[in-house]
Design the sequence.
């Protein structure tokens, strides 16, 4: 029976982690019949070098007479998505070769626009049947014995707008340092057919192979019916053909063309996103889990030692009638029982932070719950960001309740003041940073700039929903009796003995912040890659496990640090218990700096400001969240141990 418990635990972890592949997009599959029109929509242009998205038609592509934008949710707007119609004509299972989209003659200014975006490594994003266009690439899987393994395919979102030739470039007729545009696209669409389950065909994958070719007309120009010498059904476009330059010339005629290929696929519609979520190495996530569990076991052993040995021995000694008089002359945490619950300095500020922390914790738990179930799949573009924003607003009721609850413990009578600061402090900082960065993005004419109407909507969410909910939670808490403390606070504060250097607050906080960060830094790497490298992240099963481990780590490190602090007769534990786990945010921000210089290749001031501005905001939220977890666990611990002490 005892042998089966670890096995059951490992099985549970395995099942939770594989929930990441569970898919509930919230939309029904679309069945196409043979020859039915398949709509291709264009989305934003994005780049990992600039982090500034632009509308597709901000560049002079071939465009329809009337551009019709698609309806977008709040998350899509905040992400800079701009989905519009296009000229591409696609029909189910109809193969097209060398189909001409349009012919345009570009002047110097338009060519420079293309060249600038190519040098900034912009990618094009298209959408068919809610699937994003992807570029296929391969990685070699090395065998366990070190031998060469098989090649495994992966998807990269979008496809490059063009490329800058290098001296090692294998393509002929290309000049080193010149920019070339991908003016020919080969669309490879995969469909699934199952006559026993449904009628028609379902699109399950969308790949794009981009080519640059300087087209030559075979004969006279005849619009879309023109024959091309550089592209025929028997001789499709190849890499070896002369590419289409957009630099080094004042005028250039560019012919835009595309192919459409259809291939049958055994992949079912419900599993079509799996290839987008495929990790390069799933073992890394398991290593992250094992690493985090090791940290938790280490801290759990320390807490168990404190509770079962040291603390138990102290309680026996302090509560023993024979040794009570002798204990008064010794040092220990019992001697500060009259000061341990003395309200800290800046009590209002601590109440505000703890209230906001519970708001962030509630948002995180509910978001992870729905994400693990599959409701926040990337198939629902903008769904994750929209959900997080709305949940943060709705969790304002917990922020008001927690801040007022703690304020009553501290003896703060004006709960309205605490509630007001709670409702405007963190949201105000976030909105202020967002507004400044949005103004900078607007100055770059990027589609990532949030329009004025959306800013008004955010303010309505803030003052129309979040602020009232905070006050409702605070009002409910104000009508409840205050928590009875096990010890009364003495009138005159006890003098704190001189502390050794390693018991000082800054050292303990910096040391304590390492372990919570160490428990989740590998998962943080994948999240940052998703945010800043435009990769898909859908391993919410792993993230849920890591969040639980992070919670346990924050609680245990704060309890351990506070216990040793009380043993040194230092009763200023309120802020220190918050900062011990909260200072993990410092390491998060330091890691973001290292990530910036090792992974990112940003060379624009606005892009750098976006990166550090949002990472500073994320680090602040991480500080409040982890600090609240550590503080709450420590408060419960301190309340419990002093409730067990007999005081004359």
Sequence:
């Amino acid at each position: 029976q005892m042998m089966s418990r670890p096995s059951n635990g490992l099985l549970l972890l395995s099942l939770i982690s594989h929930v990441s592949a569970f898919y509930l997009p919230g939309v029904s599959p679309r069945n196409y019949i043979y020859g039915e029109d398949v709509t291709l929509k264009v989305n934003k242009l994005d780049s990992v070098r600039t982090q500034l998205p632009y509308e597709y038609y901000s560049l002079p592509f071939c465009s329809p007479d009337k551009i019709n934008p698609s309806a977008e949710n709040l998350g899509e707007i905040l992400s800079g998505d701009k989905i519009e119609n296009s000229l591409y004509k696609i029909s189910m299972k109809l193969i097209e070769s060398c189909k001409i989209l349009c012919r345009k003659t570009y002047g110097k200014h338009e060519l420079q626009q293309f060249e600038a975006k190519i040098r900034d490594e912009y990618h094009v994003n298209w959408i068919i049947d809610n699937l994003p266009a992807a570029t296929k690439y391969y990685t070699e899987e090395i065998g366990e014995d070190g031998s060469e393994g098989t090649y495994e395919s992966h998807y990269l979102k979008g496809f490059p707008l063009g490329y800058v030739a290098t001296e090692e470039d294998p393509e002929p007729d290309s000049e080193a340092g010149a920019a070339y545009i991908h003016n020919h696209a080969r669309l490879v669409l995969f469909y699934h057919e199952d006559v026993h389950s449904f009628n028609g065909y379902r699109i399950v994958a969308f790949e794009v192979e981009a080519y640059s070719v300087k087209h030559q007309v075979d004969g006279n120009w005849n619009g879309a019916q023109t024959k091309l010498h550089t592209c025929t059904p028997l001789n499709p476009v190849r890499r070896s053909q002369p590419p289409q330059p957009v630099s080094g010339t004042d005028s250039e005629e560019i012919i835009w063309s595309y192919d459409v290929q259809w291939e049958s696929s055994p992949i079912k519609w419900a599993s079509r996103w799996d290839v987008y979520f495929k990790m390069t190495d799933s073992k890394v996530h398991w290593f992250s889990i094992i690493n985090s569990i090791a940290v938790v076991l280490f801290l759990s052993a320390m807490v168990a030692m404190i509770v079962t040995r040291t603390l138990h021995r102290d309680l026996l000694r302090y509560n023993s009638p024979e040794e009570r008089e002798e204990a008064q002359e010794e040092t220990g945490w019992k001697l500060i029982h009259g000061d341990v619950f003395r309200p800290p300095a800046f009590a209002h500020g601590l109440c505000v932070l703890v209230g906001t922390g519970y708001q962030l914790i509630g948002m995180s738990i509910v978001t992870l719950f729905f994400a693990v179930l599959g409701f926040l799949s990337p198939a629902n573009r903008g769904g994750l960001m929209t959900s997080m924003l709305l949940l943060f607003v709705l969790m304002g009721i917990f922020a008001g309740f927690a801040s007022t609850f703690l304020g009553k413990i501290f003896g703060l009578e004006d709960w309205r003041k605490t509630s007001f600061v709670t409702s405007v402090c963190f949201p105000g900082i976030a909105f202020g940073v967002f507004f400044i960065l949005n103004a900078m993005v607007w100055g770059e004419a990027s589609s990532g700039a949030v329009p004025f109407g959306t800013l008004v909507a955010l303010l309505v969410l803030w003052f129309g929903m979040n602020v009232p909910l905070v006050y409702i939670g605070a009002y409910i808490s104000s009508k409840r009796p205050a928590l009875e403390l096990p010890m009364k606070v003495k009138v005159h504060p006890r003098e704190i003995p001189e502390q050794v250097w390693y018991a000082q607050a800054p050292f303990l906080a910096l040391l304590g912040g390492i372990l919570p960060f160490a428990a989740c830094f590998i998962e943080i790497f994948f999240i940052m890659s998703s945010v800043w490298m435009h990769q898909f992240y859908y391993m919410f099963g792993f993230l849920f496990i890591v969040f639980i481990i992070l919670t346990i780590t924050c609680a245990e490190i704060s309890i351990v640090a506070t216990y040793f602090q009380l043993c040194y007769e230092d009763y200023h534990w309120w802020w220190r218990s918050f900062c011990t786990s909260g200072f993990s945010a410092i390491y998060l921000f330091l890691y973001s700096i290292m990530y910036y210089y090792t992974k990112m290749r940003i060379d624009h001031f606005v892009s750098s400001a976006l990166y550090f501005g949002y990472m500073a905001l994320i680090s602040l939220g991480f500080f409040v969240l982890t600090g609240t977890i550590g503080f709450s666990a420590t408060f419960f611990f301190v309340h419990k141990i002093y409730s067990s002490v007999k005081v004359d």
Remarks:
- Residues 193 and 201 are 5 Å apart (CA to CA).
- The chain is about 45% helix and 15% strand.
